Amino acid sequence: MNSAQLAPPLPRALRVTALDDWAQCRLKFALSFFPAWPEQAPPQAMAYYALRGSYIHQVLERAGQELRGHAKPLAQAELQRRLHAHCEAVYQQFEPLEKRALIYPFHQHFQDIVPQVAGQLTGRMERGWKPLEVEHTVEGALPLLPSGKQLALKGRIDWLDENSGTLGIVDAKFKSSAAVKKMAQNPLEHPQLAVYQALLNRPDAQLFYLALHKDKQKGHVEWIEVPPPEEGTWGKAVWQLLGQQLDAFLRAACLGKPHRASIAITAPCVAFAGQKACPNQHPSTTRKHHEHPAKQLGPHRL
């Protein structure tokens, strides 16, 4: 098979969440354009992460829809009771039973941090933030430069709220607060929220993460704001940067040069610097991550 046969077409649309993969690891992003290459994680592990994400988003969606109907914040104890009920309702929806069994440990795990989630949601409303939308679908076209082509982007914003005319764009992350704070300090490496700001055409919007985490000792839930840049907006900065970088990648890939497209621009991963691990990936990542993708047959978790 020659390189032209491997070349993918320009994608009809790209998930906004895939742009974080682009910013953090170009090879991981490139793999999504070559479906003939093997899966990079066991199917059961992929199923668990998908179920976990679905569980979190459904619980928050139910909570947000309920809170939109209240002019004043619910008492924390009442919201906590309702969140527990939402958790159980979402859990019972998973079918077949094998899926329910797979997500059960996380279901128990999440129940432990419900008091902190209720406290943070109540506290945010008491500070004047009113829920507007949950799981809000957004889409638009990213101009690719200099080719002039348009790349369709689609995404779902976890949470939109408003405070005295200021829009809040929120993305929930099941990560420690320390990890999420690092993400908030590097919007160019984690462009998801900035892209939402651009797609909504709301340069005045404030960007937030909702960090959800539970370690061995206690749970921790925290709102973390992305500090604005010194000039302009993150949305504009990321929009321009992605338009140029993705244009170069897609032009190379569609010309039948997947190796140039995926490997020549993996500098953020220190791909060929003799590193034993990719600094942007899970600690178990080894140099195998940077081999020719067709050779990546091991259980490396991307």
SSE order, as H and E?
Answer: HEHHHHHEEEHHEEHH
Briefly note the structural class of the backbone. alpha/beta
Number of helices: 10
Specify the helix fraction band: 40-55%
The overall pLDDT, averaged over residues, is 80
Beta-strand residue fraction: 15-25%
Span between N and C termini? 26 Å
How many distinct beta strands? 6
Q: Please give the largest β-sheet.
A: 6 strands, mixed
> Assembly state here?
single chain
Low-confidence stretches: 1-7, 257-302
Molecular shape:
globular
Radius of gyration from the CA trace? 20 Å
Sum this structure up briefly.
By secondary structure, the protein is α/β, with parallel strands linked by helices.
What does this structure look like?
This protein has helices spanning 3-6, 18-24, 26-31, 43-68, 76-93, 97-126, 177-184, 192-200, 234-254, 258-263, and strands at 13-15, 130-143, 150-163, 166-173, 206-214, 219-225. The protein has 302 residues and is of the alpha/beta class. Among the domains are: 3-11 and 24-39 and 238-295, no CATH class; 41-127, no CATH class. Strands 1, 2, 3, 4, 5 and 6 form a six-stranded mixed beta sheet that branches. α4 (43-68) packs across α5 (76-93), α4 (43-68) runs parallel beside α6 (97-126) and α5 (76-93) packs antiparallel against α6. Mean pLDDT is 80; it is low at 1-7 and 257-302.
